[in-house]
Specification:
Length: about 270
């Protein structure tokens, strides 16, 4: 990096200007932005969530506002329109901001809303189509379940011969598992267990384990138009339910007990 021409101090020709801001692209820049945003938004009365540092909330009587920050993208949720406009006006005074109005597409997630029924449905159809094409599953057979019942997968099945190792080197096993995990984290908790099982063999996968990964993708292809539905009766209280199950020493490789759980908010599964 070179200092622009015209800024040389003839009394100190070997010195350079000190930047008062961070350079875009460096890790210090994102930290500086986050510190500045945190300072400004707290001055406006927002409090940072202790468990999720990118979530801020502000309550004034019956009016409640939530901020969700992802780098420099902000989602605002407010139950009082005039208060929402006041928050936007404050942000415009502090930062150069573009108002994209109602959220419809966030981090590869399409948001479908039915205001008359107070329902929200997050979906990742475009992302599903992309990964299905990437791993050549877009024209394959479909699967009705993410993982076969009583399927025995373990580390002893890993590629052992020279031919097997060479064959599996060309298989995008870890990449496919990572793509499935992205869907699991946002809209597809129904394949969480299958993804967890297959992720254990990334170091040395085998053909049976790769077949299991492809089966998950085939299931996603078959169900990509299905959605989680979040919402509820406005007259009913917000309700969170938890379901759990446990299997004793079901992890045969490490002789561990496996636990499964799911949280449901007003009928919609959540992380």
């Amino acid at each position: 990096m070179v200092q622009p021409e015209g800024f040389v101090d003839h009394k100190h020709p070997r010195k350079v200007c000190k930047l008062s801001r961070f350079i875009y692209g460096l890790k210090q820049a994102s930290r500086s932005w986050n510190k500045r945003f945190d300072e400004k938004i707290k001055k406006f009365g927002f409090a940072q969530n202790l468990d999720e540092s990118c979530v801020y909330q502000k309550a004034s009587g019956s009016n409640v506002t939530f901020f969700i920050l992802y780098v420099d993208d902000i989602i605002i949720m407010e139950n009082h329109i005039p208060s929402l406009q006041g928050v936007k006006d404050y942000l415009r005074k502090c930062f150069s901001m573009k108002d994209l109005r109602e959220a419809s597409f966030i981090l590869k997630i399409k948001i479908y809303r039915d205001k008359s029924k107070r329902l929200i449905r997050p979906g990742q159809n475009d992302f599903m189509d992309k990964i299905l094409k990437r791993y050549q599953i877009d024209n394959s057979k479909r699967s009705n379940i993410p993982i076969q019942e009583r399927l025995d997968l373990n580390k002893t099945q890993g590629a052992s011969t020279t031919e097997e190792v060479k064959c599996m080197q060309n298989v995008p096993y870890a990449s496919a598992v990572g793509s499935i995990m992205y869907a699991v984290r946002y809209t597809r908790p129904d394949v969480a267990f299958a993804q967890n099982i297959t992720s254990r063999f990334q170091q040395n996968p085998s053909e049976p384990q790769w077949t299991a990964v492809k089966n998950i993708l085939k299931y996603l292809r078959n169900t990509k138009d299905m959605f989680l539905v979040c919402g509820g009766n406005p007259k009913a209280e917000l309700r969170v339910d938890c379901y759990c199950d446990v299997g004793f020493e079901t992890d045969r490789d490490d002789i561990k007990t496996q636990t499964r759980y799911a949280f449901v908010l007003n009928g919609g599964a959540m992380d």
